[in-house]
Amino acid sequence: MSTLKLDGKVALVSGSGRGIGREIALKLASEGARVVVNDLDAEPAAQTVAEITAAGGHALACTGSVTEPGFAERFVAAGVDGFGGLDIIVNNAGYTWDTVIQKMSDEQWEAMLAVHLTAPFRILRAASGFIREAARREADEDREVFRKVVNISSTSGVFGNAGQANYAAAKAGINGLTRAMAKEWGRYKVTVNSVAFGLIRTRLTEADANAGATIDVEGRQIRVGVNPQILKTAESMIPLGRGGHPHEAAGAVYLFCIPESNYVTGQVLVCGGGRP
Predict the structure, then answer these.
(1) Which one is catalytic: 95, 167, 188, 254?
(2) % of the chain surpassing 90 pLDDT
(3) ∠ Cα 6 73 183 (to 5°)
(4) Degrees (nearest 5) of the Cα angle 100, 106, 111?
(5) pLDDT, tens digit (0-9, with 9 covering 90-100), for 117-143
(6) Phi and psi at residue 147, to the nearest 5°
(7) How far apart are CA 36 and CA 25, in angstroms?
(8) How far apart are CA 251 and CA 213, in angstroms?
(9) CA of 48: how far to CAs of 5, 21, 92, 165, 208, in Å?
């Protein structure tokens, strides 16, 4: 008998070619889940798949933007057709596009809502048919099977953050979607929770904002990074004394995916080293 907590489960993890998403995919796979890996670009997605398979796990790639029309249906089909089911959905894909409100364009505002709120909504909607049918079948067989949704939020969505009106609004929205879906899908034995990350040290936060670092998002050059002095000050305010590592962020998500959390739903867990 397998001792892996997620043995045989099928997990969709958006934005899992790099950073926190990659660590989430690796963690779930290490506990037996078969993972559908997603990234905007084929190369990082393939690298995550290769790392999982090299460790003896099972994974496949579903590349593309989560905001593309039809992506949600393709993502869900990758799990159902590729691995025969769907047990865990982690809505992780996203990025920041910051500025103060007087300088913020409609495009910046709408881009954050699209990737952080509309895309998760579409993925859950696309999964709803499979989830309802599977839950009814399992109920007819007198079996209780739990499925898990973990939406990635941010402390910006819980407490707000200057320069992030768009991102904070979208991440607050995902917490609202989480609580609504926990009530809507409880009858199907689906738990729906959010993890709100504080300062996690990824390529988006490690870059020096003064150096003009950018990432390419569907042809847009988005500035990333944090002023080193601001980063140092922020870390000094964290009770644990430092920013988190991506594998620690993945651990918080994992908590909501395992059987021990089957009776926990509609919650927002702050993973921030103790800083509110």
Answers:
(1) 167
(2) 86
(3) 60
(4) 90
(5) 999 999 999 999 999 999 999 999 999
(6) -120, 160
(7) 8
(8) 28
(9) 21, 10, 15, 32, 26
Distances (CA, A) of 210 to 15, 70, 206, 228, 237: 26, 38, 12, 8, 22
The domains located in the chain, with CATH, are: 10-200+247-266 (3.40.50.720)
The predicted structure's pLDDT at residue 207: 55
- Catalytic annotation present for 167: yes
Burial of 162 (0-12, 13-18, 19+ CB in 10 A): exposed
Backbone angles phi, psi at 159, to 5 degrees: -115, -10
Provide CB contacts within 8 A for 246, sequence distance 6+: 19, 20, 22, 23, 200, 201, 202
For residue 266, pLDDT over 60 is answered with yes
Residue linked to tokens 């729906």: 192
Longest CA–CA span in the chain (Å) reads 60
Nearest to 118 by CA among 86, 94, 100, 148: 94
Which single residue is written with the structure tokens 């500035």?
223
Average pLDDT in the chain: 94
**Model confidence over 11-70: pLDDT tens digits?**
999 999 999 999 999 999 999 999 999 999 999 999 999 999 999 999 999 999 999 999
**The pLDDT of residue 209 is above 60:** no
- Give 121's contacts (C-beta < 8 A, 6+ positions apart): 177
CA distance 179 to 79: 25
pLDDT > 60? residue 210: no
Give the per-residue pLDDT at 206. 63
Q: Which residues pair with 157 in a beta bridge?
A: none
Which of 227, 191, 201, 257 lies closest to 28, judged by CA?
257
Percent helix, strand, coil in the chain, to 5, is 50, 15, 35
